[in-house]
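User: Predict the complex.
Assistant: Input components as received:
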Amino acid sequence: MNTWTIARKELSSYFRSPIAYGVMCFFALITGFFFYSAVRFFLAQSLQATMMGQSVPLNVNEWVVRNVLSNMSVVGLFIIPMITMRLFAEEKRTGTIELLVTSPLRDSEIIIGKWLAAMILYLTILAVAGLNMLILFAYGNPDWRPMAVGYLGLILQGGCLLSIGTFISTATRNQIVAGVATFGVCLLLWVLDWVSQFDSSRLFTVISYLSVTSHFDSFARGVLDSKDAVYYLSMIVFGLFLTARSMESIRWRA
Amino acid sequence: MIKVEGLTKRYARNVAVDHISFEVEKGQIVGFLGPNGAGKTTTMRMLTCFMPPTEGSATVAGFDVRENPMEVKRRIGYLPETPPVYPEMEVIEYLDFVGRIKGVPKASLKSRIDEVMQKTAITDVRNREIGKLSKGYRQRVGLAQAIVHNPDVLILDEPTSGLDPHQIIETRDLIKGLSGDHTIILSTHILPEVEAMCQRVMIINKGKLVATDTMENLSSRLHGAETVAVEVLSRDGTSSPEWMRSVQERLEKVAGVSRVLAKDSKDNRARFTVESQKGSHVRPELARAVIEAGWQLNELHGMGLSLEEIFLELTASTYEAKSEPAPQAGAEEAK
């Protein structure tokens, strides 16, 4: 109940500032661009395949949806910091954190409320960008199930990065610092995967496991792998746990 | 209503609040007075469960801040130094949000908001964005926020800081009007404010409680003396240090005078503060002394013992190190 009150307040301030619309617009444009180029490439390939006398049509899911979803997951890394950077930093800067902390609220209610609001904004952004996919249904016959799994993957990956971003936002009173730090961490969690390409020793396998994007591949292919779902869910819980610890330290140090 | 025992807040390098103990009874307005950095805000933050004390205990309405913070928070309304408002929200929306997180029952929330808006006179700005309000209005929204859940205890941290004199008077009246229903602790470094509003005063300096008493007791306990301000004009139109010294010496010779302080001089005038034992009636003698020495007496008046003097005396150690005189309350208020 209180959680929802907090989430509602966050949402109303998101949609009152230009940031939500800006991010939404940016994301929709980029996704639209990727979608357009994926479809063009797909058409060219289809044409070529027909001319070569191939009778089985190319798979839309394989050629378009998977590519677009993978690209969305990477672009997602760039918009997460813009969503989370203000969550706690702004409250710390203006002193409204004192209102929240001295109200009869549990820390968990404040944290989950804020994360939930970020999540809802993120879902809205995904939904707007997802309109592209509807075009595929109008002109083609894609399978909706792998697409849904792909979206689930985007949602889980977003949830995990948002919880990390929420944590980083508690560590500073400067939104920009929070944003840049979150961006850095997002980027790191993305590129960690790359090391496994050159080295497959145990250490690098572990490092690669930590990367958010390596777990997205199966989702993009439309495969719901419990291993990857567990990774995302545990990262969400871990991020929120760190946030709770950090909020306690706000009290001790304030 | 509030009971504090040995409350201490220690940081890595310094002690912000050092074993403070006091009690506040129901319905009282208590002024928490001290120079900046004395530990007022820290004490208040511990009472409001914003931060836990390092040592000692504090109970509000019978609930300990450490063991039962939820119950304490339900019973406290808190206005921090800067009102904790969200600038992008409308006033009514903000109060609705605060009412909900403070646990005001939904059924009565709307009428409660109307009530506090009336009490704090912000009904006319109910649909304005808080960020676009004047500072005085914002402060009143902050007060409305503190009383929306009808708390037993109100804790106000420098409620008049940064307001213009007109707004200060309004805010003071508002707070006085609230005292019937709530026990109030307010902090300030502005002395007349305590004199205007509070029944009791607690003076805190460097984290220690240096005095706690009713206003009347405090002034009589500290001073068995009477203070007189004297302004003398020289005849030659200048006020040399030698002349100043001779005036001071002459005044010191008057029977009953215990101390003469030279305050300042400008052109041909010099001002002194003369302290004497109570009941010694030195004023006629002072006048005679000045006239007989051939100077002109420009001004002579008794000074009531203001809280300011008590305050300066009790917190003197903070200012001793500095060469410039302690800031005057009036100057603080004007900024």
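The mean pLDDT of chain A is 89.
Let me know if you want any component modeled separately.
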